[in-house]
Amino acid sequence: MANLAKRPLEGKIALVAGATRGAGRGIAVELGAAGATVYCTGRTTRERQSEYRRPETIEETAELVTAAGGEGVAVALDHLVPDAVAVLVERIRIERGRLDILVNDIWGGELLAEWDKPVWEHDLEKGLRMLRLAIDTHLITAHYALKLMVERPGGLLVEVTDGTAEYNAGHYRLSPFYDLCKTAVTRLAWAHGKDLEKHGCTSVSITPGWLRSEMMLDIYEVTEANWRDAIARQPHFCISETPRFIGRAVAALAADPDRARFNGQSLSSGGLARVFEFDDVDGSRPDCWRYLKEVQETGKPADATGYR
């Protein structure tokens, strides 16, 4: 029984779409730590980089999943290519016969976003590319993968975005393009939930807080080991969290036999930490979205006391 408690997702098959780095990698690793087999997709491999020109690779993510205790399977894939997604899902069907968890974390828009620009000033090609990466990829993946998931009850779809529904409803997110990307994913999860509940499956959207992704650490010229040095430059960075925190949120949700109670809802890593009582890797429990509302946006001095 103790072993089952430590590996509650033993025998489960997961697909984490967009797992090369950031939240996707953190989710994949924590699903592996809970015992799942995780197909990890992305465009950057040891032989080929995406336009991000980042060093992280999909093979590294799969290896981290295996090292955590699961089975990681690296798949180089562009989710804007429907035929390629269809081939992957058919591969999962042949190799595993099931799909229990689908995490849509595909994004890739950071280099395309132009901050605080109205639609007539924002580069049109970049804006439309952002929408394709954020929305088309998720719909293409859901089209093929959910067909396999609904063959048995209990499946879980997780749509990853930035910002809770409540936060985004009252905040303008950078530009009309970026704003639509982040709010549309939340609505997708709600809409999928209407269809999936008929098959005994669950759909949610989830957001991390201020994520200490590989890119964010580079921006502040720190590493995970000395990330607190960045607080001198940006005091509110004190509320930041690792990608493993949202990973633990997804793993806890996937292991919850009563997860259907969350169907269609907008969730956050900090909110689920309160429900399932898990911590980030440093033993803290950051609650970013409450912090932003109660501390940063009210002009109070940066202080994470009581928020992590």
Automatic annotation (TrEMBL):
<protein>
    <submittedName>
        <fullName>NAD(P)-dependent dehydrogenase, short-chain alcohol dehydrogenase family</fullName>
    </submittedName>
</protein>
<dbReference type="Pfam" id="PF00106">
    <property type="entry name" value="adh_short"/>
</dbReference>
<dbReference type="InterPro" id="IPR036291">
    <property type="entry name" value="NAD(P)-bd_dom_sf"/>
</dbReference>
<dbReference type="InterPro" id="IPR002347">
    <property type="entry name" value="SDR_fam"/>
</dbReference>
